[in-house]
Amino acid sequence: MNTDKLIAVIHKIAAKIEEEKAFLTELDNVIGDGDHGINLARGFAEVEKKLDGMAGKEPGDVLKTVGMTLVSTVGGASGPLYGTGFMKLGGALKGRAEITVPGFLAGLQQAIEGIMQRGRSTKGEKTMLDAMIPAKEAMEAKWAETSDARAAFAAGVAAAWEGVEFTKTIAATKGRASYLGERSIGHQDPGATSFTMVLEIVANEV
Ligand code: ADP
Ligand code: MG
After folding, report:
1. What CATH number is given to the structural domain containing 185?
2. pTM to 2 decimals?
3. Ligand 1 in reach of 194 Cβ (< 6 A)
């Protein structure tokens, strides 16, 4: 994937987030403070304003700008966490004109580590990590097996949705949902859901 394609994909992500804004906010209403969709939509609207000026840049620099924009425009937990994810992904792709599957996977690993560090969180706490980590592992396995980018992304999306389902079964121990403790069981995590939607958009474009 080159920069032109990446920019087109980011526009599609922004459109998807806008489309799912109410749903994501509703999910957050149940176990958080009801702003997840609004937060992300605001951030991606700001990101979109910057995309036209990014045409000649490397993909990694575009992704870093996306991350910095999310950090600076989105309040709450998800701005800094999503922002860190995009910045780490961008940093891992430095110096490359194209994003390859191995490059993306290395970047996703960095993104996961960055979010874990910034959020002081890990797998099994009912957060976006519960979609991200299984997605990355499934993609890695499918890629090793087939060297087929589409198959790898499809496996990643399927694993991410399974991760979203898994978040329904556990209590939150990080973020606002942790205030509900056991009462958060039965509800899916908004951040895991939005991550999976984003990955699905990328997968559709591969
Ligand atoms: P806020 O919780 O500040 O209102 P959002 O509603 O936008 O922010 O985002 C909530 C999402 O952020 C959660 O659904 C969860 O996936 C993610 N999240 C919250 N805290 C953490 C954390 N410490 N580590 C990883 N993800 C987190
Ligand atoms: Mg919230």
Report:
1. 1.25.40.340
2. 0.97
3. no
